[in-house]
Design a protein that fits this description.
The structure holds 2 protein chains of 2 kinds. Chain A is of the alpha/beta class. Chain A contains 17 helices and 17 strands. The chains are: A alpha/beta, B mainly alpha.
Amino acid sequence: MYLRTGLWALGLGVAAAMAAGPSWAESPKRGGILTYMIPADAPPSFDGHRETTYATVHTAAPFYSVLIRVPPNNPASTTDFVCDLCTEMPKPTDGGKTYTFRIRPDVKFHDGSKLTAQDVADSWNRIVFPPQGTTSARVTYYAMVDKIEAPDDATVVFRLKYATTAFLPALADPFAWIYKKEILAKDPHWYEKNIMGSGPFKFVSYQVGQSIKGERNPDYYHKGQPYLDGIVGIFAAKQSVRVDAIRSDRAAMEFRGVPPSARDELVKEAGKDIVVQDSDWNCGNIVSFNHRKKPFDDVRVRRALQLAVDQWKGAPALSKIAIVRSVGGIVFPGSPLAATKEELQQIAGYWPDIEKSRAEAKRLLKEAGAGGLKFELVNRNVDQPYKFVGTWLIGEWKKIGVSAEQKVVPTGPWFQAMRSGNFDVVVDANCQSVVNPVLDTGKYLPQKVYPESYGGYDDPKSVELYNKMQYETDPKAQRAAMRAYEKHTLDTMAHAIVTPYWYRIVPQRSYVKGWKISPSHYLNQDLANVWLDK
Amino acid sequence: MHRYIVKRLLLAVPTLVGAAALVFVLMRLIPGDVCVIRLGSGGAHVDPASVEACRQKLGLNDPLIVQFLDFLWSYMRFDFGTSMWSGQPVIHEIGVRLPVSLQIALMATVIAILIAIPLGTVSALKENTWLDHVVRMVAIAGIATPSFWLGIMSLVLVLDVTYLTTGRPWMPPINYVPPWQDPIHNLSMVLLPAITVGYRYSAVTMRMTRSAMLEVMREDYIRTARSKGLVEQIIINRHALKNALLPVVTLIGIEFAFLIGGLVVTEQVFNLNGIGRLFVQAVQNQDNVLTQALVMLVVVVFVVTNLVVDLLYAWLDPRIRFS
């Protein structure tokens, strides 16, 4: 009996050790070139501070360092952050309003010069307070920052206007590359067309629309890394090219994600030569109603459209053909601030009984005098998952007698329609990098507070609830405040419909090791910990 | 002859100016703004001051006539400007892509000529025989099949055949290397797209060759040549084919010029970084400077190709004289 129990325990122990990823079996090997696909024609520029596209990150992140980041070996964590250029994560002082970072003394730029706190502070000042004539894409993330200073070459101090849990995740932004102060002083636009950082790889060459190459940085400060001798990123906007390239081993992987059909095709053809990593994605499509147009100014109509959608049955069905999977509220499902299933089921549009939900939807439409409603659903000309989601929604609305016609437009006119308010209902998107619920949920605020909210409504109560949640630093109280804000947004006012969150599927050749998937295609892309088991 | 060439080149100037004016106006009729797209395409907040600064920098706030005259004056000095999207010189943006498109166009043309002229001729000479039927079927299939579909299918075929025979799927390389750097890599990459494009191209040319040959073979001078007792081979090669090639050469010229900027989908299927893809990106991004340059490039290619075709006429048909 004891022996059997002991053997069980031993077996469980071995299994647990193996599941945890035994270091003896997976010690990284040095050498080799990683060839990966970049799903784009070319990045608009190399300047991470200015750009918002993954094309820039997948192209240039391996050449740069950041101050802090998500843990490269556990990027799926939504709450952990580790140092890249700093020596240790600081404890905030001054009631949570001051963060003092010590900068590593052993960091060199690729031109051989020393990286100091002055470079870090200068880069961050450019991101938070962009000088005239330069563009910083994420300036709204840093509304809490008052001042950034470098009192000496080893210290950077961030002084905040108010304490907030949103600050550290915002600081781990994967675009916040550290540039050389001297170069920025000479030409603030230099980094748009050139690359010179302190990251794990040194820039070798770039052929526009073709490829980017990098070689190992022998002076990299995380000792032993990077493991690769070099990297080659090949640009290919067309998915079939990328999948065929992985299938034929012209490339080892791509980092954005492929639809389930492509994964299945690769796994079927290449068998054990392909491994797949997948994860919920901090991106989702949200349906925005134009409050400036009738009848969408009537909450009963918006609520009816919300109630018609069967999220619980729709998500698993859609996940078979599109890159979506998890049902969620306004907060990314993996976050501690996200609603549980039980909490979601209290909100209109998430009720467990869809028949009851649709009966209520029909009643509301009738009451609002919007029976037989017809409208245009503006959508982006992108298959995955926009068009799939749009088509699904139209089917759901049909079940309550609402007729929607999908108008698919290219990206430029899509943004244009939203910004100018030229739509009835639109399939919008909320795609973030680091999971930072406080900032990520700003999308549901009125446009005068959050310019990328396109519903065209004014709602002081929404702002009040958001601010209460934003300034709360106690986790439990903040979670409760988030629930109140979510209930108000999705149920009481039905400002938007949150469709199932995207699902990231990354197939890779099985010889690629070390890279871990995260909830965002922007994260964990410096490739320092990637190695090839060849 | 020299005077004729100079005259033709001078006549090209109004064509170029007309094309420049047309593309200039058309690009400005498209709704949207390169600065708004450039600064906010990822959904980022677009600060109106930044948009204004961008418009100022790109000269978009100047009156249209000033912009147009600037454009013409720059072109007269061979200054093609910088891309509004990437900030790179237009000459660089095009220079990177032109060799790929040029190589594919040349190879496809060679393939098309090698297939089309012999088969088109045989088809005409063996009119209404099984051979003629087969050639016509091949030609009609080529016209009916879109190049991109053929491209995808040929890639799938290569992958599947290599997988079944060797156990490891193989596909052509996906990053372009110039032929002088690595000819084998280069050929492995461009051969399949060249065949794909060349097949459609040859189909059209084959049909033209056949119908032109049929027409010529019914001419009086062919009958006269036969009645003189000339060998059939000489009649075909010296008298019929050269005359029948006149419309074929025109067609080849037009197709070649089209291939320089028109291979949008084929370039995507084979991941070729050519002029066609650049064209689409430039229009999507509302990059007026780049779009104008690309249109002018295609116009120049058409003008030059037409000139070459006209010169070839003289060689093919001595009755044509340049004065």
